[in-house]
Design goal:
This protein is an alpha/beta fold. It has two domains: about 5-150 and about 205-280, Alpha/Beta hydrolase fold, catalytic domain (Rossmann fold, 3-Layer(aba) Sandwich); about 150-205, no CATH class. The chain contains nine helices and twelve strands. Strand 9 and strand 10 form a beta hairpin. The model has no long low-confidence stretch (mean pLDDT about 95).
């Protein structure tokens, strides 16, 4: 990490201690504004594309806080350090508390306006957060490769999903929600408690964020990689349509995979350009 990165901790309202790296810009036209960068499933504030984006964007005048949610890594310590957390254990809706706490920590550092920047599941969390909270101090949302992880999409994608979900729902109803299953998770196999599996992918479809994209109250940028699975590009266009042409910009990144490997310069230019245009 660059020398201007500072490790910060923050505590959620339900007493989860989380961490992140704050990349401070030496010279910023918007000293009161910070990006909040939210990682994907089982990633962390120091893995995936977002910390590299944050570091580079700090060099272009944008303060950035790359954070952990309680879903960082597959399994981690949490609570009073005797509990288990991580992607295996998180409930999707708890992301509201995580982002609340990150923004509160940035307010303590003197920031007053925020742009949420999510990658993969972090994109879904970003859209869900602002669509739910509708904060006036969130002045933009950037969604990088949001997955279609809601119930109807999973049923269409995976012929075994519906039966697997029915079993998970039955296990939760029978008091076995903390037992485990292995299941596909956006291109990889993941370990979940039955409770978490129902929370993230259940028939409630809480995490279909197309309705949230329509009520953000701020500009939206959506991106997807040209060579990642087709449903990422499809969903990017659907989010664009939901938000409307006056509020959303959609970029399909040439040659990019899900992690934008080899396309970092293109992405940094695109993010920097959008931020300067929308925050001018």
């Amino acid at each position: 990490m660059a020398g201007n990165a500072e490790l910060l901790s923050f505590v959620t309202s339900d007493q989860e201690t989380l961490h992140g790296a704050l990349f401070r810009a030496e010279d910023s036209p918007h000293p009161d504004l910070a990006l909040v960068l939210i990682h994907g499933v089982a990633m962390s504030f120091y893995t995936g594309p977002l910390p590299a984006f944050a570091e580079a964007l700090a060099g272009r005048g944008h303060h950035g806080f790359s954070i952990n949610t309680r879903g960082h890594d597959w399994i981690s310590r949490g609570g009073d350090l005797t509990a288990f957390r991580g992607a295996t254990y998180e409930n999707f809706e708890e992301c509201l508390l995580d982002v609340d706490a990150a923004i509160e920590r940035l307010q303590q550092e003197g920031y007053a306006r925020f742009v949420l920047v999510g990658h993969s599941l972090g994109s879904v969390k970003s859209l869900y957060y602002q669509g739910t909270r509708q904060r006036d101090d969130v002045v933009g949302v950037i969604s990088c490769s949001a997955p279609k992880q809601f119930y109807a999409a999973r049923c269409a994608e995976d012929p075994e999903f519906e039966a697997r979900m029915a079993e998970a729902e039955g296990r939760v109803a029978g008091g076995e929600g903390e037992e485990y299953l292995w299941a596909p998770a956006s291109g990889a196999t993941g370990l979940f408690t039955y409770r978490t599996y129902v929370s993230k992918y259940g028939r409630h479809e809480t995490n279909d964020v197309r309705p949230h994209a329509a009520k953000l109250g701020c500009p939206l940028l959506v991106t997807a990689g040209e060579i990642e699975a087709a449903y990422f590009r499809e969903y990017a266009h659907e989010l664009d349509e939901a938000a409307g042409p006056d509020n959303c910009t959609c970029i399909i990144v040439p040659g990019a995979n899900h992690f934008y490997a080899g396309c970092e310069d293109f992405m940094i230019d695109a993010l920097d350009g959008w931020l300067k245009e929308k925050l001018a």
